[in-house]
Specification:
The complex is a heterodimer of chains A (316) and B (345).
Chain A (H helix, E strand, L loop, with lengths): L3 H14 L5 E7 L6 E6 L8 E2 L19 E5 L1 H12 L8 E5 L8 H7 L5 E7 L2 E6 L3 E5 L6 H4 L11 E2 L14 H7 L3 H11 L8 H5 L24 H14 L9 H5 L7 H15 L27
Parallel strand pairs in A: 1-4, 4-5, 5-9
Antiparallel strand pairs in A: 1-2, 1-3, 6-7, 7-8
Helix pairs in contact in A: 8-10
Chain B lengths: L2 E5 H11 L4 E8 L2 E6 L25 E8 L11 E2 L7 E6 L1 H14 L7 H8 L1 E6 L25 E5 L3 E6 L2 H9 L4 E2 L2 H17 L14 H5 L4 H5 L7 H5 L6 E8 L2 E8 L20 H20 L10 H5 L6 H10 L1
Parallel strand pairs in B: 2-6, 6-7, 7-8
Antiparallel strand pairs in B: 1-9, 1-10, 2-3, 4-5, 4-12, 8-9, 11-12
Classes of the chains: A alpha/beta (316), B alpha+beta (345).
Amino acid sequence: MIEYGEKIREIALKLLKNKEVDVFIGYKKGTVPMMNEPVLITDPDQVESLYWDSFCALNLCNYLTKRTDKIGIVATGCNSRNIATHIVENQIKRDQLYIVGVPCEGMIDHRAVMRTIKQREITDIREEGDRFTVVGKDFEETFEKKTFLQNNCATCTHRNPVIYDEMVGEPVEEQTDVAPFKDVEKIEQMAPEKRQGFFARLTSRCLRCYACRNACPLCYCPTCFVDESTPQWVGKSIDPTDTLTFHFLRAYHCAGRCTDCGACERVCPVGIKMRQFTKKLNKDCQELFSWEAGLTLDQRPPLDVYSPDDYNEFIK
Amino acid sequence: MTAKIFSKKEWTQALEELKQAYRVFAPVKDGDFHTFMPLENGKQPDFDYPNSRLSPKSLVYPESERMFEFSLDESDSDAYILKEAPKDFSPQAVVGIRPCDSHAFQIVKRNFDNPEYQDPYWVQHFESTTLVGLGCNTPCSTCFCTEVGGDPFSEHGLDALMIDLGESYLVKALTDKGEAFLNSASGGNSADDAGLQKAEELAASAREQIKVSVPTDKLQDKVATDLFEAPFWEEVAFACLNCGTCTYLCPTCWCFDIQDEISGKRGDRIRNWDSCMFPLFTLHGSGHNPRDQKHQRVRQRFMHKLKYYVDKYQDGVQCSGCGRCVRYCPVNIDIREVCRKMNEF
């Protein structure tokens, strides 16, 4: 995917020079290995800093909310689905956007890389085609990218952007033979007490730093329920009940809207797998409403609509 | 002061015995990273670690600490009276703390223990703590302690320092507390010249390995309002998620919030870490928020660490160069880069 960088720079330069957009949102190369920084560019002279590789795993849609200018933005499959959701939810207008679509082969899981190299210090990472080489002070190892994909990317079925104005490359083949909900099914089968214990362990390291919430483009409420103080709905200490309440409610707020982009897990400083919550709701939405978020601009998310001719009995 | 050499096995054994006199905390492998944990329930220390993911500040300054407890039951004679909540100030030893994190305790001390104000909880926790450092033979690429007044083998703020000699640890007592700790440890032999010499060489080699330059020399001469109005803040802040990762992982961030929590007829007054990245941090009762915008909050974090602290205490920056925020900021906002921008402005 590293070769997309050149094309992204080319398109950004064209857009900014021709004043087709006011700003361009992409990534610049990070100062530490496996990290890249979202960047907003306004000057055609700055496009050289734009960069792309398999560590661009945040969700740039997060930076669009309520902007009023004309924006060029880089979007992978999941990012484009969030942009679609943003448009449907009136957080941005379609005609404000020039979407530069990236056919995505998945992002590399930086934690899996660190585990494999036994947490040794990395000085450089080089990506070449479907392989990448990790360089340290006294080692150099090459790996196949597909065995190191982030969990959400490994089971992704929408790698190509669903809306775009221009693509940086030919569409990639979509994955079909994947089972995204295996882990959720396992949890569904647990007895309630066991499941409660599982959730308690899952969130036990939580610091309440809210990186998961803030990295998520769906979380754009002017004031989040955990930050309400009159009245205060949730306690602010690291009491396990309050922490679990935060995670559950955050997940429910994302029901039918989550694209499983994985930004929440990617940013967690202590490695909590909070996608276990959102994925359950994605599964329910698929089963109950045949719905996957962000695939269309013509429909609102299922929990956001009421229809008298709804085929589900329970709603009548 | 005593200096002893323990074989690694002897040292683990000694820590086991020291548990009779101290609550012993050490880095323990915890999934993908290390966490300072009490050595109990069979937990084994692992000193072959870069640094703990979370700084050990929570051992003196817990993320959530019950300050008081109270009853709301009017039939109680002491209803509505705040009573001290029980706390554990028994002796604890934090073994294997990196010198940057010890330096950080000295920075934080300025806030919690100064001539004007002594925070009773922080002071009692700190005074009951023996800090046994571990020199960094191999600093990480994100380390910059030497640029902010520290050193990979700094003894500053430590009660004792361990040095990994390969097959053994050289442990040097540095204060009376450290001396008491070391004298309670069984085993070991008096440090010989060869061991001391090797420790010197390791320290010199570690210093050599830190190549990064993070100049802070011009910060003090800047006019605070000029830096405050500098044109780069919106650019620096663009990617920021306003999460609490940097401030919660930082060993020198000290801000807190106090909350009353009630369950039925009883309640607790709790002190929680707070973060200047959160909008709620500065929200006034009136609804006005003086730091309503993201860039204002990001600016506050850097200005506090790299300018206001510098001006107030005249002794360097409020950063010990541990590099946690550099490494774990989810969007790669790098304090070294921001510091360069501020210093050059």
